[in-house]
Structure formats: C-alpha cells, structure tokens
Amino acid sequence: MSKHYLAGAIIAASLFAAPAFAQANLTAETASAGGSTHLAPSHLTEVTGTRGIANIQLAEGQTLTNSIQNVAEGKTDIASAPHILPFLMSRGVGPYGKLGKEKGAELASNLRSIYPYTLGIFFLYAYDAKNLGGWDDLEGKVLFNGPPRGGALNNARTMIELITGLKDGDGYTGIQANWGQATAVISGGEPDGVVLPELFPNTRVSTLGSSGKVTAWSMPKDVYESEAMQKYMKAPGSASVELPVADLQAAMGDDWTFVSEDGTFRALATIGGDVVNKDMDEQLVYDLVSAYIATLDELKAKAPFGNTVNYDNPGFGMCGANPMKYHKGAARAWEDAGFEVPDCAKDES
Fold first, then answer.
1. Is 349:324 a contact under the CB 8 Å cutoff?
2. Do 88 and 246 form a contact (C-beta atoms < 8 A)?
3. Peptide bond into 304 cis (omega under 30)
4. Other C-beta atoms within 10 Å of 292: how many?
5. Could you tell me if 84 and 237 are in contact, meaning their C-beta atoms sit under 8 angstroms apart?
6. Are 315 and 113 in contact (CB under 8 A)?
7. Which domains are present in the chain?
8. CA separation (Å) from 87 to 65, 104, 114, 119, 147?
C-alpha cells in the first residue's frame, strides 16, 4: 500500500468516525426547569443537536418578557413566550410600556410561533382536612391566589369573581407569596383553598399530595359555558380546557380527588409557545420543527404532565385576539406531519 493511499484511508476513516457537526449555531432562552415552558426548548435542543440540525445554546431561568424582546430585536434566536406577552408588546403596555405603542407593534410583528404548550391550568383545590365545599363555599375563606403581582394573580382573582361573585378583600381574603414559597405556604395550612395555574402533575401538586389528601373542583359547567367566562377564556394568552376526570385521576393518583358534575374537568388555561424571528430561514425552521414533531412521544414521556399540555395541538389558543402567527417553516412542518394548522394562525405576509 502506498503512503499516499494509506494517508488517504486514515483521513477518510477519521472523517467517518468523527461526530457530525450541527449545521447551525442558535441561541435560546427559557424559564427555570420544572414546567412545560422549559421542557419544550430543552427537548428541541437535544433532538436537533443529535440530528445535526442545530447546536442550540439554551439559557435557563430567564425573564421571558425580556427574552421575547430579544427575539424580536434579533438578539436571540428562540424564546419561550406566554402568548399574553406578544399581545402586550404589540400595544406597548404592561412590561412594554416604555417601548410605546408604535415601537411595541413594530417589534411584536417580528415574532412567529413554532409550537404550542399549556403553561398552567387554573382550578380550585384544597386539603381535605380544610373541609372546603368547593366554589360555593369560598365566602369568608382565606385563599392562596398567586404571587404578589402579575398575570397569575390577575387570572385567579378574575376567575374567582366570575364564578362566585366574590372579590379579593371583599368576600374572601387572598394571600400571596412568591412562586418559590408557594408550596410551603399552602402546606403550612394558612389558606383554606388554592387557585393557581398547575399541571397534572407538577412538582408542587405532587409535593402537596404527599402531605395529605387533596380535592380539586372543576369549574361549574353553567359558568364555564356562560358568555362572560367564554369571552374571558378567549383573551390573548388564555384558552378553555376540558379534560376527562378519569385521565386526571390516573395521572395524579389516590392522593387527589377530582370533582365534576359529569366526568369532565373544565378549567381556564394559560398558553404559550416557543417563538422565533420572522426572518429566520424557512428551511431551518422547518427542519427544527420537523425534528420536534417526530419526537413528540419522547418529549411527552420526559415529564408526568407531558400528555396534558397540548404539545401536539398546533391550533391550541391561536387566532382570535391572539396576535401570534406560525412561522411559514413551522406551519409547513406541522401540516406535512399530518396536523391541522388553522388558516387564521398562518403567516400570509
């Protein structure tokens, strides 16, 4: 064998033995670990890396109001986005008040969705030891209804008022604490009941269930179907949810009991999804989302709440007042995989 032939064979062998390099280097931002918001982009990072599509540098524990602005400005490639945030940005209000309406609308128009998920589902629950009778038994009670400020607290207060007519401080006493303190406050026994956005299950509800028997109440059917509640649940970042009680019972185990009039658990969900800039290459987005869709079963299996957060429902919470549209590459990937993307959720620009 000649030296040139041997050298060529060694080089060829080394090339085949070396791991494939990802085609694109991307940055992504998400929330802290433990929920659907974190699991989706961390899964995307894994599957696109192993398939040689992209090397995604994922920054965790980020403030998502800032993250989606970074995507809109082209500073970050992918970010987790509660859908209420693009809506607020498009109007230059709330955390985007300093942008103003014109700049906020300009930036929000740069955002495109790639896949959806449920952030949390609002419902009433309480330790059985509290002897709470459900939604009709909240007057005069102490309720834990969220952190000291923000969307979760506003949603919980509004939901309680629409269902019972009671207001925080006038009908019941609401108490609040930061998310990191919530489990300790609830398990400490101060609140008679709780209205928070949860997953089935997440770490908090699993911990609470291990400390004592818990009962959860579905939204009453007549209230759920009322014009006022339906209108509220169609607000940007919100959606109505109906889940079989049997499925929830199976997911949560004997520590939890779910109460409903007819075997269907009705609730308000907050929704979101990962977003990219509208100018991201269409084929790259298609490849990213195609890899994500092809491994949905693996994604769902990574967390006990995997089957209840709408990872495989691209129409969930889209359209209406929600300003988000799918990136063209993402919409094509979902449809090529056999899923339906509503026309009102497609980018026609």
1. no
2. no
3. no
4. 25
5. yes
6. no
7. 14-118+273-345 (3.40.190.10), 119-270 (3.40.190.10)
8. 11, 9, 17, 16, 22
The Cα–Cα gap between 274 and 35 comes to 13
- How far is 24 from 239, CA to CA, in rounded Å? 34
Helices (H), ranges, the chain? 3-17, 36-50, 64-72, 84-91, 100-108, 151-164, 179-187, 203-211, 221-224, 227-233, 245-252, 282-294, 296-301, 328-336
pTM of the shown model = 0.84
**At CA 322, angle to CA 283 and CA 281, rounded to 5?**
15
Is cis: bond before 201, omega within 30 of 0? yes
The token pair at 30 is 């998400």
Residue with the larger pLDDT of the pair 255 and 151: 255
Instruction: State the Cα–Cα distance between residues 10 and 29, nearest whole angstrom.
Output: 41
Confidence band (pLDDT; 50, 70, 90) for 295?
very high
- Tell me: pLDDT of 187 over 60: yes
